[in-house]
Write a structure and sequence with these properties.
alpha/beta; seven-stranded antiparallel β-sheet; 19 helices; binds fructose -6-phosphate
């Protein structure tokens, strides 16, 4: 949440367009406001705008600025409303600073700095860091001393980049929990992710918690939390770290939905999982949030049935606050697209600190992310960079990894997994027109119910999440057997009920649940297969045949498309739904 960037141009070249390019790639991290500050001839100029980056770009066309070093920010508001005053960079007479995270003890310093006469102009926690540095400079400290003192005093989560008026060609940056990549190449640069700085550098290194760096074109210096100088390994910027754009698609989300066959294929190729991985494991604990949590819920059905290992799935943000019992010989699986979700990260750390003999593994999409670095073992989903805020291809790739583990001892089911890419391809081709028609109707609804049973219950939850988070139509996913225990009261002629019911062992039970809904509602749609469809006398959408264990992967796809198409018809911003951000780095 919040994207930050800083660039020092080679040979005094103007870096404004590079910063804006970087901010375009960071917009997925927040779009409540955007801002930029540049250094030139010992002065700093700043431009900020509320809302999406295009507003800042428009403003810069009218009042252009230029400079040979600069910082930029896209904001996801935490402290203070999304106003221009609260937009970063924060500035004092000698400093400009951008921040991603939350400074937890900011009020203590704010009160003291106000008492000393410093005049705050925003409601943000970040402005305290800027005035803290200014106050240190005013007391006679040099920038390095001021920055180090600030790091010792500030508590909470942060990625900072700071620039000093008196210091040409040097940026200070530091990290605690929020990510920072430092880039080396034609320009020196720093950003919240590799993609944002990839056009300015060939190699990157990631800061670890507690580390800070002084970035300069004459050579960057890195320090550990005790301010001892350290050497950092660099990695090449490869295409899998870089957002390759929307291509011919109108939206990232559609591109990412269409990429699923290839994401699944690459994920299968990259993950050869043997049963040995489960040696000594007597329980499985899955930790995740949101869509990734739904992937975990599917896995529970698979793991208890096929691996015969007791499995629990926990919402990561709840886990460590309920004093859970952690047992020896637990395999912990943290599932995450971004690899940054603080709730998941903290839950993993909680397990690690328990001193139980647990194997902590991550299923992550972003290489070298904080969660993958914390895990003892990582399975990477090979979905490629996911930009659409609503997760799609990362979700089906997560399910693929989870299935590869579940069925590692079942050659028959492994063969079914191998066929997934082509079945998903077929589904995307087959269903587009039917989903268009359904989307036309659904766009008028104010609420919708998704029903599933067994391993498709989590997919009902996921379908509902996709619809509500991007189209703003309220939706609920239900275990269809639970409907009669309360939610059935919601069903009337106007309530769309979307049912997931392929043929299989649970078909009859689900069929009865759908009849109960049909007796009370008018707008029932059933996603099923050919064998199932003949039994329904209501609207059906027919998917290709798939083994019932793998139906969760296939049946996710039309629900993603449906949410996408409804949102486009409603004219909402598919890739940047309101109030959301792609990487959730606040608790
Ligand atoms: C919804 C969505 C979120 C994420 C959740 C966890 O479409 O994307 O619910 O799944 O914020 O994020 P990761 O997977 O990055 O840990």
């Amino acid at each position: 949440m919040c994207g930050i960037i800083g660039i020092i141009g080679r040979d005094g070249q103007d870096i404004v367009s590079n910063i804006l390019q970087g901010l375009e790639k960071l917009e997925y991290r927040g779009y409540d406001s955007a801002g930029i500050a540049v250094w030139k001839n010992e002065s700093i100029h700043r431009v900020r705008a509320v809302g999406k980056l295009c507003n800042l770009q428009d403003k810069l066309k009218k009042t252009p600025i230029n400079g040979e070093m600069g910082i930029g920010h896209t904001r996801w508001a935490t402290h203070g409303k999304p106003t221009e005053e609260n937009a970063h960079p924060m500035m004092t007479k000698d400093i400009a600073l951008v921040h991603n995270g939350i400074i937890e003890n900011y009020e203590v310093f704010k009160n003291e700095l106000i008492r000393q006469g410093y005049q705050f102009t925003s409601q943000t926690d970040t402005e305290v860091a800027a005035f803290y540095l200014q106050a240190e400079l005013d007391k006679g400290a040099n920038p390095r001393e001021a920055f180090r003192k600030m790091l010792c005093d500030m508590r909470g989560t942060y990625a900072f980049v700071a620039m000093f008026r008196s210091l040409p060609g040097i940026l200070f940056c530091a990290k605690n929990k929020s990510p920072i990549a430092v880039g080396f190449g034609e320009n020196m640069c720093v950003g919240s992710d590799a993609s944002s700085i990839s056009s300015c550098c060939d190699e990157i290194t990631y800061l670890n918690d507690g580390e800070y760096a002084e970035i300069s074109k004459d050579g960057s210096v890195f320090f550990d939390k005790f301010f001892n100088e350290i050497q950092k390994d660099r990695i090449k910027v490869t295409s899998d770290l870089v957002n390759s754009g929307k291509g011919t698609y109108d939206h990232y989300m559609l591109k990412e939905i269409m990429e699923q066959p290839s994401a699944i294929r690459k994920t299968i190729q990259a993950n050869k999982i043997s049963k040995d991985f489960l040696g000594g494991v007597s329980r499985i604990l899955i930790l995740a949030c949101g869509t990734s949590y739904h992937a975990g819920l599917v896995a529970r059905y698979w793991y208890e049935k096929y691996l015969k290992i007791p499995t629990i799935v926990e919402i990561a943000s709840e886990y460590r606050y309920r004093c859970p019992v952690i047992e020896d010989n637990t395999l912990v699986l943290a599932i995450t697209q971004s690899g940054e979700t603080i709730d998941t990260l903290e839950a993993m750390e909680y397990v690690k600190k328990s001193n139980k003999t647990c194997k902590v593994a991550a299923i992550a999409n972003v290489k070298n992310s904080a969660i993958s670095r914390l895990a003892d073992f990582v399975f990477y989903t090979e979905a490629g960079v996911e930009i659409g805020v609503a997760s799609t291809k990362a979700f089906t790739a997560q399910l693929t990894v989870l299935a590869l583990l579940a069925f590692c001892d079942r050659p028959d089911l492994m063969a079914q997994i191998m066929s997934l890419p082509s079945v998903c391809d077929e589904t995307l081709e087959l269903l587009s027109a039917e989903i268009d028609a359904l989307a036309e109707e659904l766009q008028e609804a104010s609420s919708a119910i998704y029903l599933g049973r067994g391993n498709l219950y989590p997919i009902a939850l996921e379908g509902a999440l996709k619809l509500k988070e991007i189209s703003y139509i309220h939706a609920e996913g239900l275990a269809s057997g639970e409907m009669k225990h309360g939610p059935i009261a919601l069903i009337d002629d106007k309530m769309p009920v979307i049912c997931l019911c392929p043929s299989g062992k649970i078909f009859d039970k689900m069929f009865s649940n759908i009849q109960i809904a049909k007796a009370r509602g008018q707008s029932i749609v059933v996603f099923t297969d050919e064998a199932g469809a003949v039994q329904f006398d209501c609207r059906t959408i027919v998917l290709p045949e798939i083994h019932e264990e793998l139906a969760p992967i296939l049946y996710s796809i039309p629900l993603q498309l449906l949410a996408y198409k409804v949102t486009v018809l409603k004219g909402e911003d598919v890739d940047k739904p309101r109030n959301l951000a792609k990487s959730v780095t606040v608790e």
